[in-house]
């Protein structure tokens, strides 16, 4: 049993080593605290794209530019601020036919441009997507649900992570009849947010997009702590 316990402890220490690489030379407990906060989304960001194929590069460019400019004009008309709109540069690529025999033949050009829009009122998301469809946009890359008070929820998640780390350390110390002395090291890495994302949706089948109204966002945090114990 003693041998098995040592091997288990060694495996656990090796697994924890990349997180807190500096290992102290005194008795200690390493804990990782996890916390989360649940938020209801109240805004959104989406990315849409127009893709057109024409016989010439200039025709393809003009076709996508016309759609994008029409969409941008409608967004501004509906009160969307210019700083909440990002439009990409033109992406143009030649298209080829590949006959069974002979060389590839140029068949035309494919052009695309994308637009990213921040919608600060979630109830306006469907209407804004309708504008995209009416303007000639033919692809939705993603819809990302967000929360305006991200920092407040992040702090709640971080507090929960700290309490989780403390509770684990106390429980472990008590379980092994030890006493905690002080915190020797705290390591924190800002986690990436986990927004609700709907990807690769067809512009003409948006009935499913209404599901965001009942969605929630889980905002997570984590903290790694080393506690010193009594010798």
UniProtKB/TrEMBL annotation:
Superkingdom: Bacteria
Keywords per UniProt: Signal
The keyword Transferase appears for this protein: no
Gene3D superfamilies: Protein of unknown function (DUF541), domain 1, Protein of unknown function (DUF541), domain 2
Range of residues in the leader sequence: 1-21
Family annotation (NCBIfam families): PRK11087.1
UniProt-listed InterPro entries: 26kDa_periplasmic_antigen, SIMPL/DUF541
Pfam families: SIMPL
Protein name: Oxidative stress defense protein
Gene Ontology terms describing biological process: DNA damage response
